[in-house]
Amino acid sequence: MKISVNWLKEYIPVTHTVEEMADKVSLTGIESGPVNLGEELTNLVVGHITSITPHPDSDHLKVCQVDVGEDTDIQIVCGAPNVAEGQYVIVALHGAHLPDGIKIKRGKLRGQESNGMICGLDEVGVPAKYMPKEFENGIYVFDEPQTPGAEVYDLLGLKDKMVDMDITPNRADTLGMRGAAWEIGATYDEKPTFKQPELDNSKISDSQDVTAEVTEKELVPDYLLRELKGIKVGKSPLWMQRRLWNQNIRPVNSVVDAANYVMIEYGQPIQAYDLDKLQTKAITVKLAHNGDKLDLADETKVLDKNDLVIAAGDQILGLAGVMNGSVAAVDENTTNVLLEAGVFDGASVRKAAQRHDLRGDDSNRFEKGVDNGIVDEALVRATQLVDQFTEAKEISNVITGNFTKAEPTVIKGDFSHINHLMGLNLSNDEITKILKRLGFEVAAAGDALTVTIPTRRWDMSIEADVVEEVNRIYGYENLPNTLPAGMETRGGYSKKREFSNKLRNILLGAGLDEVINFSLLSKQDVEDFNTIQTEYTKLLHPMTEDHEYLRNSLIPGLVRNVAYNQARKNNDIGIFEQARIFDRPTDQDRPNEVEYISGAVSGNVVADSWNTEAQQADFYYVKGLVEEMLAFTNSDAEFTFVATDEYDNLHPGQTAKVLANGQVIGFIGKLHPNYQKAHAVAETFVFELNIDLLFGLNKKNVKAQSAPKYPSISRDLAILVEKDVENGQLVADIFANGGKYLRDVNIFDVYQGKNLKPNHKSLGYHLEFLNPNDTLTDEEVEKAFTLVKDSLVQKFNVEIR
Amino acid sequence: MSLNDTLKNLRENGIDEAKRAERLQELNDLRVNLLGKKGPITKALRGMKDVPAEERPEIGTLANNVKNDIQAAIEEKMSELNDKLVAKKLEDEKIDVTLPATKQVQGTRHILNQTIEDIEQFFIGLGYEVAPGYEVEEDHYNFERLNIPKNHPARDMQDTFYLSDELLMRTQTSAQEGRDMEEHDFSNGPLKMISPGVVYRRDDDDATHSHQFHQIEGLVVDKNISMADLKGTLDALCRHVFGENREIRFRPSYFPFTEPSVEVDVSCFNCGGEGCRICKYTGWIEVLGAGLTHPNVLKMSGIDPQVYSGMAFGLGPERFAMLKYGVNDIRDFYLNDVRFLEQFKGVN
């Protein structure tokens, strides 16, 4: 809420600029900013139109002679439809500055001299939607005579200075001027003073027309009404109007304005009804029936049984705490009025306002809470103002639908504990003084402290609240910087995080960039890579179809990244992501969160350059990345790669499952050509590994061994074998027959093509034998080598070359 | 010619020949020819028997000197020729060092992870455990245990993706607080943890909003935790992240799960507090929210707020990275254009 300094001065002395106040209030209480209205405005004065003649060359322009306090009247040409002789108006003199950089100069309008401009409110800075409706299409006209030539700024609040307080939900006590005065007053150690509103007792009558009943008493702790009869509705005084439009409230009439004014003054919303428009005089606050209708000025809301309404019989007057209908609106013909001050349950108001999309000043206050202690006083104040403006003949007593006496909150605490929580050592007197500045009552008994909190600070309930009040008013800038001084603790990552960092580092070392993708995917995405065969997990209320399901694979995100990059000519891409996927077993609502590391490589992995030849990404490059990660798991598991064609969106001939001791822990594969095409990526190879499963594998028990002292002996083996026999099978067989000294088998040549038997391939292996404890003899090696060859011939029908 | 003269001649010729040699092979040949067992010096010395006995030592010395002198001349020339050869080789091997390198590329950690890990390392150094929580969380931990009951207005501040009535995508890493507090054994000392991770809100993605972003929650619960501890800790953090000369300030704020609650501003690292575009001419930049753990939150975890107190803070790695590196659009973090990613090589 914007706190006008001129208004604030009625309660506390103000000696600082709004800039200083906004800074100080931000640091001690509520985030605030300075507002200086109309800084640019100059040369705006009251003008009195002494005569008007039609413009000789225009149908709609008029030539006005205007008294602007100078020796002679000045001539101004004006086109406003409502301009008339005798009016007191806003005149922008020659040289005047208006909002948006507009500058007024004397000149001629269709040949007639014009020495300025007669202005509408919106032309001098009051937003059109907050100015009185009657001036919407013309110039502003003062209700009462003013001094010609006098500046208009104060009359219209055009240069008001305000502190704009952007409250947190707990500080709705400052959504009224009086609450704000307490807060700013505490900041500057100034105690605010308020005038108690009083009614003209001679007008108070014991008779009353209406009755008030509240059916939902727990939702409506207070519901008070007063009738004013024989009123004459007119305009509210200018001082009130200008305060309202500067609060972004449009002045309407003297009754509605008074009600709105009291809301700003006290923070307590007030409603007004035309008594004669009520169907019956029995007012009830109750839950609506499904299908009840609330007529607003420009639409009709259909209500349901959750809506708390104000009703006169079957007539719905308003949605309690949210908005009144137009059915009993007060207008210029109203002669009897009913004023209402109620307190409505915040949650109920919040939901209703949300449901009907009707959030406003009233609901904003009830949602966050209002001061139960001033409901009756606010009603007195509203009654006083309406009476003052409309000269009521008769005022009723308070008609009570419900009333809950507000009690102050008593908080007990210890001075030492409060100091302890702040990390300060303030004296009891200092703490007491600060709390008294806030208008709290304090009783001290040794270390014990009892603070009595007035009802206006309903956010305060426990000792921690007192700590905050003392600390902020004392000044956070005065807190020392310390570190927690308790027992030493050992910090660090979890073992699993350290493990996954190892795997990330391998991929980073290999030159892959790390990416971060969204966890929420489209239905298509989760269907495309459901390789873990999980139940999908869906949001109840997704915002878009693109982000509707929890991801079951990191691959769709990575493919999107490859496509995004390749569309921008970043053709050579190596990326990986380490993140969670969501795996939901059929019998579970909650998905398991599983850490994965996945990657995608497309284009060249070694660039074409002056001294290197380009090397394209392929299955084996990605397999190399995966194998190195597996090596760094430090696991004793046996890792194997098994060809698979069961994943729809991967190439059926270039995909392998990765297994640890026979359990699937991930895959490597090339994207299916159709999938590549659909996603606009070049040939792309992907992998994924389940970190949780890898982390759970048994660790190797590494015992150091000296490097071998004895030389190794090697043999090369060239074979011709049918195309479909896999290298893995052959190597396993070689190891099975190579004896205990066979240390390593490397394939150094794979050839398929010309000059070979059809459907055959030629393979070359390098076998290395080593006895760590003795020099191997050729005979020993030859014996083992023969066994290897015999077995291959026998089992795989190979031809030794 | 006397033996004496013969030797002197041999010396003169030998040295001369050595000096004239142009190839190492010539010098090797010269050494063998002159100084070898079949060489002229050895041959000449056979005439020693004709030399009177008293002159023999003198001739012997001379012969040795001649050998040494020729040897030295050969070696000197050899070294000279060697130097030339090396110089030639070096000259031949000269390369253009301005040609591009053979690439040895390391990948770049995502800038958000770099930012997170920098902050993690800071807190690990202060004895904090890193404890990421669940991304799918119960309403109970995400809200109720943080003093945000159903119908609390604060639930509006965070529009939530629900999976069911009770399950949701966590809206804040604070959701981990309740779990950590109920698991912690205070007989082992204080609870000091940070919880980094992904959170989700029902926001439309634009330059400053993302339906998915990161947070780091920090929580310390012990017998003596104070606002001053919170301020000191965050002051040290902000100096670590934004530079040694930074200062912080607290402003009162509101979070349902802390009391007192503060927003934390850091003095502008761009202008040093003078006022500039980045700090919107205030000299300060809001970087995180913090406070003392609300007594209700402690109580719900079975911790007595009369004995223990806690401090908590929550910060946004996206915001930190955007501020520190001038990233203008939060969506850049999730588009993963490698040209964007790779500019952050090694920044943390």
Automatic annotation (TrEMBL), chain A:
<feature type="binding site">
    <location>
        <position position="469"/>
    </location>
    <ligand>
        <name>Mg(2+)</name>
    </ligand>
</feature>
<dbReference type="GO" id="GO:0004826">
    <property type="term" value="F:phenylalanine-tRNA ligase activity"/>
</dbReference>
<feature type="binding site">
    <location>
        <position position="459"/>
    </location>
    <ligand>
        <name>Mg(2+)</name>
    </ligand>
</feature>
<dbReference type="GO" id="GO:0016740">
    <property type="term" value="F:transferase activity"/>
</dbReference>
<dbReference type="InterPro" id="IPR045060">
    <property type="entry name" value="Phe-tRNA-ligase_IIc_bsu"/>
</dbReference>
<dbReference type="InterPro" id="IPR005147">
    <property type="entry name" value="tRNA_synthase_B5-dom"/>
</dbReference>
<dbReference type="InterPro" id="IPR036690">
    <property type="entry name" value="Fdx_antiC-bd_sf"/>
</dbReference>
<feature type="domain" description="FDX-ACB">
    <location>
        <begin position="708"/>
        <end position="801"/>
    </location>
</feature>
<dbReference type="GO" id="GO:0009328">
    <property type="term" value="C:phenylalanine-tRNA ligase complex"/>
</dbReference>
<keyword id="KW-0460">Magnesium</keyword>
<dbReference type="Pfam" id="PF03147">
    <property type="entry name" value="FDX-ACB"/>
</dbReference>
<keyword id="KW-0694">RNA-binding</keyword>
<dbReference type="GO" id="GO:0000049">
    <property type="term" value="F:tRNA binding"/>
</dbReference>
<keyword id="KW-0067">ATP-binding</keyword>
<protein>
    <recommendedName>
        <fullName>Phenylalanine--tRNA ligase beta subunit</fullName>
        <ecNumber>6.1.1.20</ecNumber>
    </recommendedName>
</protein>
<keyword id="KW-0479">Metal-binding</keyword>
<keyword id="KW-0547">Nucleotide-binding</keyword>
<keyword id="KW-0030">Aminoacyl-tRNA synthetase</keyword>
<dbReference type="InterPro" id="IPR045864">
    <property type="entry name" value="aa-tRNA-synth_II/BPL/LPL"/>
</dbReference>
<dbReference type="InterPro" id="IPR004532">
    <property type="entry name" value="Phe-tRNA-ligase_IIc_bsu_bact"/>
</dbReference>
<comment type="subunit">
    <text>Tetramer of two alpha and two beta subunits.</text>
</comment>
<dbReference type="InterPro" id="IPR012340">
    <property type="entry name" value="NA-bd_OB-fold"/>
</dbReference>
Automatic annotation (TrEMBL), chain B:
<dbReference type="InterPro" id="IPR006195">
    <property type="entry name" value="aa-tRNA-synth_II"/>
</dbReference>
<dbReference type="InterPro" id="IPR002319">
    <property type="entry name" value="Phenylalanyl-tRNA_Synthase"/>
</dbReference>
<dbReference type="InterPro" id="IPR010978">
    <property type="entry name" value="tRNA-bd_arm"/>
</dbReference>
<dbReference type="GO" id="GO:0004826">
    <property type="term" value="F:phenylalanine-tRNA ligase activity"/>
</dbReference>
<comment type="subunit">
    <text>Tetramer of two alpha and two beta subunits.</text>
</comment>
<feature type="domain" description="Aminoacyl-transfer RNA synthetases class-II family profile">
    <location>
        <begin position="188"/>
        <end position="323"/>
    </location>
</feature>
<dbReference type="GO" id="GO:0140096">
    <property type="term" value="F:catalytic activity, acting on a protein"/>
</dbReference>
<dbReference type="InterPro" id="IPR004529">
    <property type="entry name" value="Phe-tRNA-synth_IIc_asu"/>
</dbReference>
<keyword id="KW-0030">Aminoacyl-tRNA synthetase</keyword>
<keyword id="KW-0479">Metal-binding</keyword>
<keyword id="KW-0963">Cytoplasm</keyword>
<dbReference type="InterPro" id="IPR022911">
    <property type="entry name" value="Phe_tRNA_ligase_alpha1_bac"/>
</dbReference>
<keyword id="KW-0436">Ligase</keyword>
<dbReference type="GO" id="GO:0006432">
    <property type="term" value="P:phenylalanyl-tRNA aminoacylation"/>
</dbReference>
<comment type="similarity">
    <text>Belongs to the class-II aminoacyl-tRNA synthetase family. Phe-tRNA synthetase alpha subunit type 1 subfamily.</text>
</comment>
<dbReference type="GO" id="GO:0005524">
    <property type="term" value="F:ATP binding"/>
</dbReference>
<dbReference type="GO" id="GO:0000049">
    <property type="term" value="F:tRNA binding"/>
</dbReference>
<dbReference type="GO" id="GO:0005737">
    <property type="term" value="C:cytoplasm"/>
</dbReference>
<dbReference type="InterPro" id="IPR045864">
    <property type="entry name" value="aa-tRNA-synth_II/BPL/LPL"/>
</dbReference>
<keyword id="KW-0547">Nucleotide-binding</keyword>
<keyword id="KW-0067">ATP-binding</keyword>
<dbReference type="GO" id="GO:0016740">
    <property type="term" value="F:transferase activity"/>
</dbReference>
